[in-house]
Please model this.
Amino acid sequence: MIAIKILTIALLVYLGWAVVYQLAFAIAGHFFKKEKGKPDGQFRRFAVLIPGYREDAVIVDTVKAALRQNYPAELYEIVPIADQMWSPTIQKIKRLGVQPLEVFFDKSTKSKSINAALAKLGDDFDAVVVLDADNHPRPDFLLCMNEAMGKGHVALQGQRVAKNANTALSLLDGVSESVNNHLLCSGHRALGLSARLAGSGMAFDFSIFKKVMATVDALGGFDKELELKLTQMGVTIGFVPDAVVLDEKVDNEKSFARQRGRWLAAQYRYGRRFAGAAFKALFLKGQLDFFNKTLQMALPPRLVLPGALAFGTMVSALFGQVFAAVWLALLAGNLMSFALAIPRAYWRAEFFTALLKLPMAFLATLKALALMPLAGRQFLHTPHGAVSA
Model:
């Protein structure tokens, strides 16, 4: 019984910390203001990298969307990185006036594709943008990023917005993306901390990005390794909500589990790898931003947290445990953080209908946890379909 009580208290402390962390940034997100500074008025030359592994279904439309920028055409170059794509797809891209970079690896990863492109491009660029093969940037995306970089920022995350809501799961996935934007971007920047990196819709100073990416060898979740290394260097990652990228959301349980399994494996792997350095940097150099990133990596899956709290509340109440009120208070605080972080536009009938699928999403997240060991050994690709923007 003593061991069970100790385990219960330890679990309460861990989950309670996660609730307080999420609630604090949910509140802070409502005080976010645009990145400060006066733009320098310069127009930077951008390399727009679009790595894609067997993304024949979506890559052509993405290239078309990337070409529709309200930005001087001579100042940006679209670079699709075609990993194991079909010849007809390559020809379609070429007919758009874009030269794809074909790459071949024994074991494909996003970081390998990006580094191959950086090696081929040379250094005739001021900045680099990374998009996913299913991303559709809004026409003013480069303008917004250029303006933010003109204020002195060298690492920026744009706002990823759901491209599709064709199933209940894709709608919930889109809500999750918006919650991430609020908590991990707006909330963090409101308190002076770095925004998260989402893996796409990002912009960087070219030389800094090339230097750091040369040290990145991530099997999956290269963005996690990248944001940890940038904050370790003292780079603050900004957030540009006006730089919008439409991102395809997964619409089935299998893809959801594989995607989350890959993300969670990377999150916990890099959190463990950098934890010691982050503690040392906090106490010796006062690097709170870097330390906070490792804390962020230690958070439990967002969909698992309310389920675990609800389960703990019921078990505690059934057995008359003194901690029942604590479990209930934590569950209430967690639900409040979601209410604060979900954009008002989602509060409509379709969203409440989709909430009925939460148990399925919860089970898919548990499957994702089971897939973590596999994700640590091989890249788990999430296939995309042609979804209209």
The chain has two domains: 8-30+267-373, 39-252. Residues 8-30+267-373 form one domain. The radius of gyration is 21 Å. Residues 135 and 156 are 17 Å apart (CA to CA).
